[in-house]
Amino acid sequence: MAAVGSKLPEGPSEGSSKGLPEGRYGRSRTADDAADRKLRIVGSVLGVLLLGVVGWFGYDYVNGTKISAEVIKFDVVSDRSVEAHLEVRKDTGARGYCTLRSQAESGNEVGRKDFRFDRRTDRIDQVVTLRTTSRATSVELLGCHSD
Question: What span, in angstroms and rounded, lies between the C-alpha atoms of 145 and 67?
Fold first, then answer.
């Protein structure tokens, strides 16, 4: 009961069928809100999957097939050729190539050769002959790459 001289509040009363006061308990979910939420979830899942695939390819690129090699020794056979003893250590099924370079005393490159390997062993010892344009004084391994 209201006191004498006081006014009753205007608007819906507590038992009214109009529902809750707007803005008081957050907004109600509509079909658009539910669709937006589903799209955000699907987008997040796809983003995580894409990140995983990129991470996998990056890891595989960095830690892919292991190939290591070294020139054990070399012999200058003549003014036009040099022999290098190359040792390659790799995964058993790996295939690829190693690049050798020979240089003259001046430091100029006088020969270069790619040595291909595809044997199903984990170690290859091979003597590789490089033809040169003049007398070589050194042979170096530039690098090895897998196919």
Answer: 7
The torsion angles phi and psi of 19, rounded to 5 degrees, stand at: 100, -165
**Residue 103 and residue 7: Cα distance in Å, rounded?**
106
Which residues lie closer than 8 Å to 59 by C-beta, 6 or more apart? none
User: Rounded to 10 degrees, what is the CA torsion of 106, 112, 117, 122?
Assistant: 10
Model's pTM, two decimal places? 0.57
Distances, alpha carbon 6 to alpha carbons 1, 10, 13, 15, in Å:
10, 12, 16, 21
pLDDT one-digit tens code per residue, 123-134: 999 999 999 999
At 55, is the secondary structure helix, strand, or coil?
helix
Residue 104 is encoded by which pair of tokens? 């003259």
Contact predicate 71/140, CB 8 Å: yes
